[in-house]
Structures are given as C-alpha cells and as structure tokens.
Design goal:
Layout: H1 3-18, H2 20-45
C-alpha cells in the first residue's frame, strides 16, 4: 500500500465515522489559524 492509498483509506473511514460536517469544522479551524498566523507575521514585519 502506498502512502497515498493509506491516506485515502484513512480519509474514507474518517468520513464514514464522523460525516462531512467534521471536515467542514476542521477546515474552518485551520483557516482561522492561518489567518491568525498571517496577521502575526504582518505585525512582526512592521
């Protein structure tokens, strides 16, 4: 099994276990974290 296949298998089982709302929630958290890091970087550059 390749790394890609393993990731796909894990993603499918996670989707089956938690549903699509789980991915929406973690995506939103990740986006908020990135936004925060960008703001911190901009402040540090000044």
């Amino acid at each position: 099994m390749t790394v890609g296949e393993a990731g796909r298998k894990g993603g499918k089982s996670t989707l089956k276990k938690y549903g699509p709302a789980f991915y929406e929630q973690i995506g939103k958290k990740g986006g908020q974290k990135v936004k925060k890091l960008i703001e911190q970087g901009k402040r540090a550059a000044k």
